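[09:14] KT: can someone run the structure on this one? pasting the chain below
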Amino acid sequence: MTSLEAASFWIGLNALFLIYVSARVGMMRTKHKINLGDGGNDEMIRAIRTQGNYVEYAPIALIGLLALAAMGRSAVIVHALGGSFLAARVAHLLGLGMGVWPLGRFIGTLGTMLSLLATAIFLVLASFG
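[09:31] RB: done, structure tokens below
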């Protein structure tokens, strides 16, 4: 698998994850009969913030994977970064969005920051050749 194929794989999985967290917001709106906003409902707030938080971080993470692939970096690096980012976002969903894993939000946030930091370091180093 080339690094571009690896990046495409993680971008595709992240697109599916976005569809899932977005669908959760829609399901909560239907369940709680909330057309706009959060209605002050904790479950709705958590679903909205899980989706919003993902949308805030995913673009730069995925652009980073694509840039590393375009610069010819190893597919192993792209897989490690893509896998760690998505795993962190799943942990965040389990913690904040679903409330089924008390440490999930912390681990998800930490994992997201570490995967972004690693991606940034690889990008900066790669820019020097």
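[09:33] KT: thanks! The helical segments are 3-32, 42-70, 75-97, 104-127.
[09:34] RB: yep, looked fine to me
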